[in-house]
Write a structure and sequence with these properties.
two-stranded antiparallel ribbon; 2 strands; 2% strand; elongated
């Protein structure tokens, strides 16, 4: 074989790029590929990460009663008690007038409302005392109520022996109710007009002065007539 032809044939079989470039290191190429992928992943994660909004400042929980410093006044408490007392006495007045029956059937309604009246009356004593108000009426109600409790039993109601007593005590309950209602009116009047008492005293003083002045200005004849008429009235009495 011609050596020249052999060399030419051998060179023709070798890939052209391998003849020009040195063979690539596959291990190194793999490492470079992994580095590129890692860098790319980190970059994407950094660019696509969602930034969390700043947290709102925490506020310490407050008690439901924080800042509540108000208290119910004695006057409001007394009005509350008196309104309930009037309600109990009103119911007691009605049921006693009906003989402690509902549709002709004996009931414990009188006993129930007398207990309520006694309870509110006893509770009101100390409240009224703190305010310098009279307490006798509450003691009277608290003493009277048990007498109603004692006569409101099915046997006594059915017997008919207490019908007259029930009607009579209905009047007693009515008197108590009216007295308590007038006390409520006085309390509300004081609330609406704090200086009313002072005004009443001033008016009374003014009227008294006018009376004295008017008497002083009377003529002797008029004074004699008044004295004579006064004696006649005294004798008539």
């Amino acid at each position: 074989m011609n050596w020249l032809d052999f060399i030419i044939n051998t060179v023709a079989r070798i890939p052209f790029e391998r003849a020009l470039f040195s063979p690539r290191d596959n291990t190194k190429a793999l490492e470079e590929f992994i580095d590129k992928q890692t860098t790319s992943s980190v970059g994407k994660a950094t660019s696509t990460a969602i930034q969390e909004p700043p947290k709102a400042p925490e506020i310490a929980p407050q008690s439901r009663t924080a800042g509540i410093s108000q208290r119910v006044s004695d006057k409001d408490t007394l009005l509350y008690q008196l309104n309930h007392l009037v309600a109990a006495l009103s119911q007691l007045e009605i049921h006693l007038s009906e003989g402690c029956k509902i549709m002709g059937v004996p009931c414990d309604c009188c006993k129930k409302h007398s207990i309520q009246a006694r309870t509110f009356a006893m509770e009101t004593i100390s409240i009224a005392a703190r305010m310098g108000k009279p307490t006798a009426i509450y003691n009277e109600i608290a003493t009277w109520a048990p007498t109603i409790e004692a006569i409101d039993t099915p046997e006594k109601v059915e017997s008919g022996d207490y019908d007259e007593t029930y009607r009579k005590e209905s009047g007693t309950a009515s008197q108590f109710r009216k007295t308590v209602q007038s006390m409520i009116g006085e309390l509300k009047g004081e609330e609406d007009c704090p200086s009313c008492e002072e005004m009443r005293e001033s008016i009374s003083s003014f009227i008294e002065q006018r009376k004295r002045k008017g008497i002083a200005e009377l003529s002797p004849e008029d004074k004699a007539k008044i004295l004579k008429r006064s004696k006649e009235l005294i004798e008539e009495v």
